Amino acid sequence: MHWQQLLDLSEQKSIQQARTLFDRDYDRIIFSHPFRKLQDKTQVHPLPEHDFVHNRLTHSLEVSSVGRSLGRLVGDSVLERRPEMARQISANDFGTIVASASLAHDIGNPPFGHSGEQAISEYFLLNAKLLESEFTQKEWADLVNFEGNAQGFRLLNKSGYQGLKLTAPTLAAFTKYPRPALVSDALKPRRSQKKYGFYVSEADLFKEMAHKLGLKALAEEQWTRHPLAFLVEAADDICYHVIDLEDGCNLGLLSQEDTIELYAQVIGERFDRNKLYTIRSKREQIAVLRALAISELIDQCKTLFLDSEEDILSGKFDVSLTDAIPAADHLAQISKISVQNIYRSRTVLEIEAAGFTVINGLLEAFVPAACSIQKGKQTRKEQVCYRLLPEDTRYEIEQAPTVYLALRALLDFVSGLTDSNAMNLYRKIGGIALPGKI
């Protein structure tokens, strides 16, 4: 792979222009409807009454900030090594591509976090006898393994969402898993093949993009990552390791001293305990350590990427950057403790349980209604449920040439609901609350 093709420099104008195509990508994502919905989607914890923790929106903004720094630092060195590219692209452009892809990295996540993904998948698995015969093997693989990354790629390419029309480099940097759901060989242990990144409905779009950018083919419908996707993944890894720990401490799920020690291990020689305790506020102490930890991890990931640049471009390098940096063992320890003390806390489990109940309830109401439209025969209940769907979703279902594409349109609606929207709709269709009496 070659940077000139990977960055689609043939489409770029002089770097002297005030607003580049990559700047336009960033702006279009941040003003898009799916992005704004992230403000009411759970990150890990429900929003407490007397404190602040991160939701999907604040998490995405922070990942984007870290991604911008990583992109700029890497871009500066790449251009220093390849000065002939500097006439067409700047280090800031590298940063903007990674920041844009990072901004959108959770845009396809359904309500209630990962439990929402699992709930959608389990609905189809549990109803396989009734539904599976309607679909091809590839289509069924999509439905029984709902994937937020593939859903995000679909939304970013969907004309109904203001027609974002992002550049190919931004879309490729967004795609951490350049493969469909059903493959003949998962190519373990390659990190890029761990999950999948596009549905059957967007397979041709991805193939066209991969050819345009010169992504290396690994097998039929499987490619190497765009190099900048490693930076997007690293930005996400850094933020959820470091910031979820801060949230856990602020909520009392982890002690102040334990949190300090975990951060200190990541920070290394820059950690100064005496200086830390000159800060009176315990919360500010944690905030300072969080910032130092992020800075250290950015530096380590940048160094590893640049040291591995040729292997990344050849497709030989295919692991998460944060799994191979000097601080990897410390991050693994943070992850282990976070699972025990944070991700399995009662409030988090309550959110997960609610997600399974609510999402399953919505699908039980709407999937039969959508399928019956394709068959031209509806029960009275299916008619009523169908009419509760938004007009644009109904139009897509009615225009869909196959049951699979009809359900893709329905899942765009269900996965696009915020936590509050999903809960309120579930209460109404389940008879738990009547309109105006919630």
From TrEMBL:
Keyword check for Hydrolase: yes
HD/PDEase domain mapped to chain residues: 52-250
Family annotation (SUPFAM superfamilies): HD-domain/PDEase-like
Organism: Roseivirga thermotolerans
Keywords: Hydrolase
InterPro entries assigned to the protein according to its UniProt record, in alphabetical order: dGTP_triP_hydro_central_sf (IPR023293), dGTP_triphosphohydrolase_C (IPR027432), dGTPase (IPR006261), dGTPase-like (IPR050135), HD/PDEase_dom (IPR003607), HD_domain (IPR006674), PHydrolase_assoc_dom (IPR026875)
Designated name of the protein: DGTPase
